[in-house]
Amino acid sequence: MKRFRGFIQKEFYHIFRDKRSLFILFGMPIAQILLFGFAITNEINNVDIAILDHSKDATTEEIINKIGASKYFSIQQIIEKEADIETIFKKGKVKAVLTFEKDFSKNLIKEHKATVQIIADATDPNTANTISNFVNAILQKYQNELNKEVTIAYQIVPETRMVYNPELKSVYMFVPGVMTIILMLVSAMMTSISITREKELGTMEILLVSPIKPFQVILGKVFPYIFLSIINAIVIVLLSLFIFDMQVQGSLFLLGLESVLFIVSSLALGILISTISASQQTAMMISLMGLMLPVILLSGFIFPISSMPLPLQIISNIIPAKWFIIILKGIMLKGVGIQFIWKETLILFGMTVFFIGLSIKKYKIRLE
Q1: What's the whole-model pTM score?
Q2: Which of 23, 48, 194, 262 has the most CB atoms around its CB within 10 Å?
Q3: What is the four-CA torsion angle of 237, 239, 243, 249, rounded to 10 degrees?
């Protein structure tokens, strides 16, 4: 019994001495609870919209002020002509454009009916539907306030038009997200486990002291995963084309280049995980809990980032998957070129360089 008690005591000492184990045991569950509690929501907050006001009268100004004053919308831009609508959507920040017809106030008074068109970006069908419902609710409330003071009821008729995904197919939202998750899974997790396995068995050190240079050893380990990830990306695009009838609107060449950039970024992240992991189990836990959950919750794959608390919005900026999903939706659904996604591409490239540099530094320290 005394030996058994001593053994249990020793196991406690091992756990409390290992900071990584403590983080996995206590830090990860807390992080998951906070992420699930705050990020999983169907509501919208501070969604960026644009206004196209053909009438520019007192009534439309009052409606615009009411929409801007709500917590649900942030009026990002006032545009002057309909030709600007497609451009502003392709930039990716604005999720809806409200168009007020010409002579809005006159039509409302004379004909007791006026029209507001809601043009929503349906690359995310759930968000587009929610935006439409919230705008309708604000208009309905304003209409009820007007009708208290008149004998003949006024009627404001909202007309909703969904762009890029008029049928509101959820597959249009899930294909870019699933592609991101699979590429991250194959590239980051499998690379980190593969290299950690060599370290765990003691064969990595033998390889590093062989005539082959260390960077060649690492490159040789990760190259198969580059190849497998590219095949995965091609298979996903083919499935979206032939199974889900989701046509790629933009350049396939640009899509391929951006995919390779994300794959290299994920591989570099996997190598970085392998440098801080002493075992396959630790690498697996960090990859699954530290990468997969943020990719699902904080990348904009399922839940709109603008509806999350500010701290989570800031954290989402350091997740490569967020930028890659924006790029994928832009190319596959909106048909944009590099002129609209160059910022996201530069951010992803910067992250890749950072991960590679940090991985090389860590391996140099280990070799010394």
Answers
A1: 0.72
A2: 262
A3: 0
